[in-house]
Amino acid sequence: MQPTELSAIDLVAAVANGDLTAVECTQAALDRIAAVDPATNAFLHVDQAAALAAAEAVDAKRAAGKPLGPLAGLPVGVKDALCTRDMPTTCASKMLEGYRPPYDADTVARLRAADAVIIGKTNMDEFAMGASNENSAFGPVRNPWDATRATGGSSGGSAACVAASMSTVSIGSDTGGSIRQPAGLCGVTGLKPTYGRVSRRGLVAFASSLDQIGPMAHSAADCGLVLETIAGHDPLDSTSLAEAVPSYTQMLEEPLAGIRIGRVPAHFGEGLDPDVAAAVEEGFRVLEAAGATIHDIDLPHAKYGVATYYLIAPSEASSNLARYDGVHYGHRTTEPCRSDAFDSPLVEMYCRSRAEGFGPEVKRRIMLGTYALSAGYYDAYYKRALQVRRLIRQDYLDAFAKVDLIGGPVSATPAFPLGEKTDDPLAMYLLDLYTVTTNLAGVCGISFPCGFTESGLPIGYQLQAPALAEPLLLRAADRFQRLTEWHRRRPPSA
């Protein structure tokens, strides 16, 4: 079996036992990228020399009898929104094209300290704003299951590189579903941890109260393995939680007997693809067979989730992206700035730099957020959205007093054709219907394969759990994957 075909747990064990070298694992991933990525566009940057050097260092450590890190030799793709000191970090935007940060994001530093091998930076929607990964300034990511279809976003590159076996695991970020939705559309497993469980230091901010970093892999067990490394308190991140990190992989053996899973009937209404509905309903039956009980529940304010999210997230983006003005950060125009149409050459330079550097979707969300924060509309829009967010959070608290987990779809449809929704922003925003409330409430969620359409496209199942209940979330997903084979299927090209 090739290293690219192994699970993360098995690959790390093989390197530790000497059955494989880290160099062999890394070279296999690099060879796979060279063969597959031209058709997928999952990676924006791959540093072959640096990756092999890191792998050689792991092998040298083992040869010297030194203890290896818990992820020794594991090839990892990292979303291009996380800072890397030795590779560009562009957020898939011309605004940051060629930018090399002076430091590693906390997550990247933890991966390196665990002896993982960072093989490259993955493509994404520009500044993590999108649900299809068509908003990248460097071209869309194409779904490994069907190159004419989208991967979902914004972590589309991170999902695609795992689905196509270019990387054993990857790191994404999730602001309103950006790990879980592409995981569902690409047939992999994606975990959005509790807000604050993983440090956001070094993650280029989109919406600071919603952003969260998490792992993507073929299995829940592999996601748990990676989470054990990247989770933990970071004193340099004021939103980082101080709670101890459990051994997620060691807690997978506990049974699901007696676990109560909530089903929201409103999630199965108009707009849900019949194939998706059937696969998700079967997912409930699988979990029931594993010992769980299923209970219908209500999340009465979830129907306002998309509207609430698309006021809060753009408002925070408007503030966060104000720093990209061509002076403090980002692209600076080369056009002469002496037009009488602007108040001053400086203002003209700001305007031209931002117009040239940002893509259409980023501009759209900055304008939405700026409008919502403006003096005349703050109370009517932004303040009201914060009030509804509190109601959504209370809905989850009430639900989790009755059930332990909430199950349902991750996306209303399977992967859709590229270009199908690009001219309809509202249709694109509605793709986040089942995922945004997880972020608004600050709880954790996971997406994993639960079936396929007749045409062979993967379907994702979503579980949500209370804050810091990742052990239960991973245990339930792992139990599902022990009883099914959906997560073992690979695209025809893989």
Structural account:
The protein has 494 residues and is an alpha/beta fold. 37% of the residues lie in helices and 14% in strands. It has helices at 8-17, 22-40, 48-63, 106-113, 156-163, 180-186, 220-230, 274-289, 305-320, 345-357, 360-373, 379-399, 425-429, 436-441, 470-483, and strands at residues 43-46, 75-79, 117-122, 142-143, 146-150, 169-174, 189-192, 212-217, 260-263, 293-296, 405-409, 444-452, 458-465. The chain has an eleven-stranded mixed sheet with strand order 1-3-2-6-8-7-12-13-11-9-10, with helices on both faces. Strands 4-5 form a two-stranded antiparallel ribbon. α2 (22-40) runs antiparallel to α3 (48-63), α7 runs antiparallel to α15 and α9 crosses α12 (379-399). The chain starts with 7 loop residues before the first helix and ends in an 11-residue tail after the last helix.
In short:
This protein has 494 residues and is of the alpha/beta class. It contains 15 helices and 13 strands. The chain has helices at 8-17, 22-40, 48-63, 106-113, 156-163, 180-186, 220-230, 274-289, 305-320, 345-357, 360-373, 379-399, 425-429, 436-441, 470-483; strands at 43-46, 75-79, 117-122, 142-143, 146-150, 169-174, 189-192, 212-217, 260-263, 293-296, 405-409, 444-452, 458-465.
